[in-house]
Amino acid sequence: MITVKSISEAIIILIRAGAATRGAYCFFKMLQNDEDVALYKKRFINTLVFYVLAELVWQLKELAVYYYG
Asked: Is the Cα torsion angle 51, 53, 55, 57 positive or negative in sign?
C-alpha cells in the first residue's frame, strides 16, 4: 500500500508541476504574441480545466481510500 501511495503522490506532484508550467508558458506567450492571444487563452483555460479535474479525481481517490481503507 505504501508503494501505491508514493506512486500516486508522485503522479499528482507531476500533474501540478506540469499544469503550472503549461499555464505560465501560455500566459507568457499571450503577453509576447499579439496575434495568437485567443489560441493561448484557450490553451490556458484548457490547462486550468485539466488541473481542476485532476485535483477532483485526486480528492475522490483520497475519500475512497479513507472510507474503505
From this structure: negative
Which pLDDT tens digit goes with each residue over 32-43?
988 999 999 999
DSSP 24-42: HHHHHHHHH-STTHHHHHH
The conformation of residue 68, written as its DSSP 8-state character, comes to H
pTM reported for the whole predicted model: 0.83
Residues 6+ apart with CB under 8 A from 61: 8
Q: How far apart are the C-alpha atoms of 7 and 21, rounded to whole Å?
A: 21
**CA 62/CA 28 separation, integer angstroms:** 34
Grid cell of 35 as nine digits: 496575434
